[in-house]
Amino acid sequence: MKMMIPLEGEIKNLSRVWLIVTASLCYCRLISAKLPKGKWRFISLLPIFYIFTLLPLFTSSAFFTGVTAFFITWLSNFKLLLFAFDRGPIAPDPDPKPLPTFIAMAALPFDINRTPTPNKSKKLPLFLATEISISVVLFSILHDYKQRIHPQIVLILYCCLVFLLIEILVELSSLVAWALLGLDLESPSDEPYLSTSLREFWGRRWNRTVNSILRQTVYRPVRSATEAAMGGDAAAVAGVMAAFVVSGLMHELLVWYITRAPPSWEMTMFFVVHGVCVAVEFGMAERKWRLPWFVAAPLTVGFVVGTSSWLFFPPLMRNGADTRVIEEVGFVLEVVKGVWNSSSISSAHQ
Questions:
Q1: I want to staple 32 with a disulfide (CB 3.0 to 4.6 A). Which of 22, 44, 50, 84 is the partner?
Q2: Is the per-residue pLDDT at 25 higher than 90?
């Protein structure tokens, strides 16, 4: 139980962080929103950008530091950047959003479904309950048996956990927003393990909230700025590369928050490699050259897993961040298990 005190302290840290986030977003909605879009609203948001950049430093656990950096330092700051110019998910549409909706959409990683479509059945039955169950099993295996498992199998399990954790975090956020605000929200991803190309994986299936934010903050501005000089196709490639580079730099920042180690730039290189490959796929698509799906799908997923093992996970593993997360989750599972057993014993005695 030696981690109980840090856990209690971390709960206090998280409470402080989310109070600051809520107060900051109230300022954005009630004061900054009154200013004209553009320069003056942007200037009014500069203190919030600074505060949101510091917030991950107030947490100590690897898991909660990563979540805070992802939700607030990256996504919230990017949403507020768009908001400064009346663009993005929290901009007036056409009327200003109610304060609770504004705060939820700015602080949590989801987007409103603006073009409702009938629910598409999944090829694999992966829903919130099954995702949580599978994650618990994988964390338990890694917590108890990691040293006995082949390193390549561990990396494959890490890939599965990254997918499942992002799905769970976004789906839980969406569930809270739906229950409290009645919002119709987009699904966090669309079965990325079925992708038949990297364009499909990154552009339509994987982590669609981040995809939407990068499209609005990086891809479109870069494409618009370069189209006259480079032409439409080249400008699109430039926009894609810029989005991947920015994504790589933001992931590099997330790793620094968690590890406090100097950047190795492997994370950035991971996204640069994928950006180059997506650009190559653009050229192949123009020539209408395409592999059969039963070949393309395994190659796509295999390439993502392989490059993740090569570039994405090493900076986290080198600094022990993966072990810290496994231990933190394992401790929480032990606490939940203890509480459950105590409740079962009490019920049996009644």
A1: 44
A2: yes
